[in-house]
Amino acid sequence: MTCGEKEAGRMKTVVSSVQAKELDQYAIEEMKMPSLILMERAALAVVDALEKKAETLKCVLVVCGTGNNGADGVAVGRILHLKGYDVNVCCLGEEQRYSPELRQQLEIAKKYCVSLVNNPSWNEYTTIVDAIFGVGLSRNVTGFYLEAIKQINQTFARKVAVDVPSGLCSDSGRILGHAVRADETVTFAFLKKGLCLYPGCEWAGETCVADIGIYERKNETPEAYTHAVEWQDVRCLLPKRAENGNKGSFGKVLFLAGSRQMAGAAYLCASACLRSGAGMVKIHTAQENREILQTLLPEALLSTYAEGQADFQMLKEDLEWCDVVAAGPGLGQGPQECSLLQFLLENCAKPLVLDADALNLFGKNPHWAKKLPKTCVFTPHLMEMSRMTGKTLEEIQREPFHSADEFAKRHQVICVLKDARTVIAVPDGRSWVNLSGNSGMATAGSGDVLTGITAALLAVGEDPAHMAALAVYLHGCAGDVACGRKGDRSMTAQDIIGALPEVFKRGVDKNGEKQSNKGIYIAGRDCAKF
Ligand SMILES: NC(=O)C1=CN([C@@H]2O[C@H](COP(=O)(O)OP(=O)(O)OC[C@H]3O[C@@H](n4cnc5c(N)ncnc54)[C@H](OP(=O)(O)O)[C@@H]3O)[C@@H](O)[C@H]2O)[C@@H](O)CC1
Ligand SMILES: [K+]
Questions:
Q1: How far apart are the first and last CA of the chain?
Q2: Domains and CATH numbers, the chain
Q3: Over 80: is that where the pLDDT of 528 sits?
Q4: How many CA atoms lie within 13 A of 506 on its CB side?
Q5: Which ligand 1 atom sits nearest the alpha carbon of residue 25?
Q6: What is the ipTM of this complex?
Q7: For the chain, how big is the Rg over CA atoms in Å?
Q8: 10 versus 160: which is more confidently predicted?
Q9: In this structure, which residue's CA is closest to atom 46 in ligand 1?
């Protein structure tokens, strides 16, 4: 898709700084779109966002750096000036370092008598437009740039960032020394990875993706870019339910979950799975969990084993019965669970989700890597990823895309690296970042719920990678509904399950075009949040 129209199911494209620059160049060189026109459209998009709160535009300062982000800023200043606003433009940095576009914009601005200032009184302004650095930031911010960013952050003015808040790494979302804490960011053409990840997404504030005439290359393959599932993709990706289907045709899911005293995790994943459309669910679990699971979830079938008497024959039959297997929640890591999981891996060719203790056991038994079935989804949180890879938490968090991608390729599995912004990577190079959800989901059992949703979707979907990305998105949407009902402090994993019906109903409802990508929207499109 190259013409700017958004096909349902194509998902929002997320780019790195290198890709952003390549696509700028592609628009200019291949598509013959003059750079000045792109810049004018970028500036108009910023002005459009600024005017949404026109009452804050009494006195505007535009702070510009030496590159094309600064050139955008000067164009914003000119347009505001010509619209009659009281605006000052301040260019930081040495003139000899100015980019050709900045020089050109300054020449035009001077002809239109735009007010250029050197030492602004920072506190005089009601709005400050930050155009110091965009995707070209290449190192830590120091010197007078650092001072300017500190001054901007100290004011009470509304702060609107051009493309990326200055000081934010547009690839990792990390703060390079110091960054502008923006109320809003108008980013051009595509979301940047650093605007999706923490802390970047917080520093960007409400983020608007503005179409300025830069599109993906023709015939680009899906693995070329990262994507984010959006609400309008759900209806397209969610497998249709056949009117004449039966409980057998909607997926039979087997859970190896819940050791002695750990019935809760087994209940949560199985319950979430049933609420996500699975036709039948069976839990292979410790005998002590039978009564409680039968009471809590009478819809689930049970196979139980006594302490020290793992029943491999029964597990073999369960594996033959099911369409999809999920192992790990509350499983424990004792010798019995270890041998059950090993047996499962040796005898299972069906799509498999590995979570929680299954991941910890996998970490302790790296030779199991050779036993994995063709379709396998790993859902580690950072700590589990660290145990499996030997990387530190910091290393994983600094480069979540790289960590997930590396793991996916090494083991030929789908890697769902869970964090506040979950990253999904597939061996063929495709990747997603999830934008739904909230801090209330960092609660016990939330991961078990995701395992259940993922298993249910794998049982019916064609592309397991799409199903994994969709499961993560819907899990976040359910978390957002639960948060709306109970608040981020009080919501529990059961509340997330309780919200699934509303999310799935909206997912198939033509009128349910709501968006749960918190704080990120596309210019010109009205998106209500959950
Ligand atoms: N191409 C187009 O037509 C379009 C471009 N667009 C816009 O262009 C932006 C990208 O422009 P860009 O590539 O010029 O990079 P930008 O972010 O302005 O910064 C580079 C400058 O900063 C400097 N610098 C970097 N780090 C520094 C540091 N720590 N401390 C000090 N200096 C530092 C660096 O200096 P140098 O590293 O060379 O010393 C260089 O001078 C993009 O975000 C979007 O807003 C849109 O209008 C769409 C059309
Ligand atoms: K900026």
A1: 28
A2: 12-228 (3.40.50.10260), 246-504+514-522 (3.40.1190.20)
A3: no
A4: 20
A5: 1
A6: 0.98
A7: 26
A8: 160
A9: 39
